[in-house]
Amino acid sequence: MVVFVHSLGSIWHAREHASGATSVWNTTGIDDGKRIRPRSETYGQVALGGRAQLELHKHGSIRPGVWIASELVEYAGIRKLQLIVRAKADSAADLYLLTITEALIGPLPDDGWHPRETQIVSHSRWNHRQEIMLLLHPFGWLRGERATATLIPANRGCEWRIAQWSAK
Amino acid sequence: MRYLPGSIAISDETDVPLLRTVYRAGHVTAQQLYASIHSSKEKRLWNTLNWRVARLVTHKFLDRTPVPGLARPGLVARPKW
Predict the structure, then answer these.
(1) CA of A108, closest CA in chain B: separation in Å?
(2) So what's the ipTM on this one?
(3) Which of A70, A146, B11, B43 qualifies as a cystine partner to A106, CB 3.0-4.6 A?
(4) A81: three-class secondary structure by DSSP
């Protein structure tokens, strides 16, 4: 499937194998002032394939863009999505991979996303802090304590359109 | 809870299918959009679609832009990307 990778989580892991190959993956975490800890409610990883690892080494980050990615699968309680290779830049994305915190629209309650359409890759929560990595369809929504955010495909990327709740 | 005045509430049942149809197509005329959503021709449905598109354009969920080469001038909606 074609996934537009907008943003990833705060935690990076790398492991070298005896064969010489390296596994690199990303997940969500919360900075508690001392260090970033997983604080996982739902643990999931975005694994980087060889091409994605090359890009990470070259640029120090995965720049926003479209990727051919695996389906999100779960095995032994760990969700996993693999970025395989970049897709053509003008490819229309089937899904958008985004990571948000409570700063966007307030903390998301457990019913703060579409139960069938939105897929949670990884979810970290501690006190009022939250980091959540999701796969959303175009025009998918999130409902936080302060507002609703709708994902709009825009300018070869995406942006949030936010509607605030009234206090009354 | 209510939205602040001037906000738009997007309906999963009516707005989202329309927005995704335009997204997949890249750009469509209002007539093409109507034909893809409704199988029968009814003035009431046409008026409702026009109202819905105008509302989504006003809130910048869709663009209304002339596209060279399209036979029918006037209403063209496409998402901004």
Answers:
(1) 15
(2) 0.79
(3) A146
(4) strand
